[in-house]
Amino acid sequence: MNTIICLGYEGQPCGREVKRTGPSQKRCFQCAKEHDKDRARNWYKNNPERAKKKMHDRNLKCYVYVSARDHYRYIFGTKTNPPLRTYKDMPFEDTWNPNKGGSFRTAEKEILEDIGTKLPGQSLHIIHHEKGFVRGNLKWADLKEQSENRTLNRIVFLQRRIKQLERENAELKGLHNGLHALSPMPKSSNTTEA
Q1: Is the pTM of this model over 0.85?
Q2: In Å, how far are 110, 167, 179, 185 from 117, measured between CA atoms?
Q3: Residues near 46 by Cβ (< 8 Å), separated by ≥ 6?
Q4: What is the largest CA-CA distance in the chain?
Q5: What is the DSSP secondary structure assignment for residue 69, as one 8-state letter?
Q6: Angstrom distance (rounded) from CA 43 to CA 64
Q7: Is residue 182 a part of any domain in this protein?
Q8: Which domain holds residue 72?
Q9: Which of the residues 71, 83, 162, 179 could staple to 88 if both were Cys, CB 3.0 to 4.6 A apart?
């Protein structure tokens, strides 16, 4: 047979005749959708503790995934936004970097393996900014600890900027010295010949 009579869902008879799309189909598309919603609602209602844990785990995984993705964007920028000043040139774990064949799902899995679950009021924290967003340099931290670290991050950023300026200065000096070596020395009018 190419058609079925829809059974409906949760006390809502349908009776519509619809074209069969699968061997075990019992409902039309709309009723199947409502039936799935009812089953999910009933499961959550009958298993409140398991449902709470399931929601917590899903939210935690989502949080870690989004955090890894956002840190990637802070460090490398996007098409429309440049990298954030305090994150620019920060190392990022290769196995999490999509440009190097990594993925944020891998980051999510490895971060949760390394530092465990998040407690209420905590967020993902980079321990040492100079080491970067890498394995072994992340932990859960509360707002107080993160705000204390912001000052240290500014210091690290300024230290990086000083090193960058010193390199540029050294390059300019090298160019300057190279130009002097190429140009002839001007004769001084104060010298007397003996």
Answers
A1: no
A2: 12, 42, 60, 70
A3: none
A4: 122
A5: H
A6: 26
A7: no
A8: 49-176
A9: 83
